[in-house]
Amino acid sequence: MSLEDMERFLIKKALARHDGNAMQAAEALGLSRSAFYRRLEKYGL
């Protein structure tokens, strides 16, 4: 599993754990809101 695959997996898991709440998922992953949204766009999530 590549680093990008792992990051995509963790983002999906965080979103599921927080019932789709992007801000809570970003906080749980230690990302800023803008960084989290950039990653969502990058991975097409």
What does this structure look like?
The chain is mainly α and 45 residues long. It has a single domain (3-43), classed as Orthogonal Bundle (Arc Repressor Mutant, subunit A). It has three helices and no strands. The protein has helices at residues 3-17, 22-29, 33-43. The protein is globular, with a radius of gyration of 10 Å.
Characterize this entry briefly.
The protein has one domain (3-43): Arc Repressor Mutant, subunit A (Orthogonal Bundle), CATH 1.10.10.
Helices and strands in order, then pairings?
Elements lengths: L2 H15 L4 H8 L3 H11 L2
Helix pairs in contact: 1-2, 2-3
CATH level 1 class label = Mainly Alpha
What structural class do you assign from the helix and strand content? mainly alpha
Query: How does CATH name the architecture?
Result: Orthogonal Bundle
Q: How large a portion of the residues is in β-strands, by DSSP E?
A: under 5%
With helices defined by DSSP (H or I, 4 residues minimum), what is the helix count? Answer: 3
CATH level-3 fold name: Arc Repressor Mutant, subunit A
The separation of the N and C termini measures: 18 Å
Order of helices and strands: HHH
Helix content: over 70%
Shape: globular
Count structural domains.
Answer: 1
Based on CA atoms alone, the radius of gyration comes out at 10 Å
In the predicted model, the low-confidence regions spanning at least 5 consecutive residues are: none
Please count the beta strands (DSSP E, at least 2 residues each).
0
Average pLDDT taken over every residue: 95
Q: Biggest β-sheet, characterized?
A: none
